[in-house]
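Practice set, problem 2.
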Amino acid sequence: MAGGAALLLPLLLLLLLPVAAAEPPWAGDDGDWDEEAVAEPRGGRVLPGLNALESMDLEFGLCTVTCGIGIREILLMNGCPGGETKCIVGVEECHGPVDCGLGRPISENSKSVVMTCIYIPPENRFKYVWKIIAPNKTAHILPNDSAVMEVHRDTHPITYQCETQGNESVIASVKYTVHATTEHQTKQSERIEAGQSRKKRADAILVFCLVTGIIFTLGVIFAIIFVILHWAIVKAVLGSKNGQDDTFEKLTNKSSQSDM
């Protein structure tokens, strides 16, 4: 038994020596351990997922428009630098009702009108379709496909419409009414007359306030001058009044004493 144990011991040592000599899988070329390989898993450093923003505490600001297309801010509610309670981490598109109703031209004069579609930069992201709208008729599509269009006034009013399209769907629509030359001149003269009448009313109110202030100031000045010039009379009147008050008080005191 002792001899068999002695033979087995060298065999076990021979079997264990190759295992002990083998380098661990995280060892470097020089036999030292590669700390980075130990610290990081295979495949490199772990990166956040594509949907990391969705797991944050976010809040969305108000849309910049009430119709059509606009932008809104994306706010981070915690983890902001400098101890801020909120910070902007980005912006995104936002949409409102498609129909924006009747718009106002960029500029106009007695001969032409400049109109614009609804869009956000960059301008070439969208497709623009201009139409002429007439009651009880099919809309007439114009060849202009730009975001801004200039038209000349006609002898009758014309309604134009611009549709902003994105991803094969209408995302915004606005109309403009271009009045005729004579109608525009009439409206412009009416506005001028209305402005002149408002100015006349304002001038009349200003003159009334000014005259009232002058009369009140003159009255105060004349009252002061009268008191200064007739101070003796005023003093005598005040003194007689005080004497009458004293006489009345004495009579009251005597009557009260007689009653007692």
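Problem 2, part (b): a different protein.
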Amino acid sequence: MLISQTNLQIIKEPVEKTQGEHTTVMKKPKLMETIAEDDGALDRINKLPESLLARIISLLPSTKNAVRTCLVSKRWQYLWTSIDNLTLLCDSPSEAEICVPFVDYAFAQRISSKIRKFYLDCWDMLSYSLHIDQWLTYVINSKVEHVVLNSTFFKVYILPQSFYTCSSLVTLGLRNCAFDKGVVISWKSLKTVKFMTVELDDEAIVKLLTGCPSLETMELTYFHGFQHLEIKNINLKTLKLHNFWQLYGGDHSLEIVAPYLQHLVISEHLDDFKCRLVNVSSLVSAELTFDIRCEIQDNSCRDYHRVFLDPCSRLSSKVETCK
């Protein structure tokens, strides 16, 4: 079947550290902040057990917010070091210059042995790869379950060797990242992957699917680089493909073999992307939402678009029959 288409006040002491051909300056921050006096409401909150206080603080939008909040009470001053999730936002070059030494400091101060969730939104992960590699090693040793690595700049960050065998990983989100060549993936507990502009060729796709036997949902946004997607995992029931990333030249087709797949979503800008469904015999639902941008001024393109639309109607009939 063919379908077309706080400001925290930080005193910095520079320490030089060489990374590749460049010398980066790592800073050791000292947090200087006035701790507010307790009032009646704060006294009542202070009577809560520390485990509950830590849980409440962990729900704040970022780790920096958690640190700020802990500065309002002497009892809370180091409470943030025991929370089990780290949310780190360095979404601009100037912010990253402050955030990176702060994160180094935060890891050095932690007393909890468990990190459940690690979320990093960094302007340019590649430029700080030495630091990020060390952070990932720390969270892996802490049995992290949920990881999101979001690089907003189009410099690709290569995941470190230690990351590919994280057996505790349950969900993984990546943006502007890539797998190292020749690695063996072993994410035995991984159930959900959400990748955006992640470099995946046919070999990487095979390694990903083979190394994730528990995978249930795979969502790829701005995907490219592979032409064959064979899903043998009996647990993988949902596949979502958003926005084909069209590169100049090359093959813009994809063949899907997924006999156990139940839910398929193909959406948004597909351009000249062509997808052939070879075996989707267990399919229960399919959602096709797409834009077709046509630069042809007359009606001569009607036949081309018919090639796209006719199979869509046949797919709809097939899915209806399978219900």
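Answer key, part (b): Residues 1-38, 317-323 have pLDDT under 50 and may be disordered. The chain has seven helices and 17 strands.
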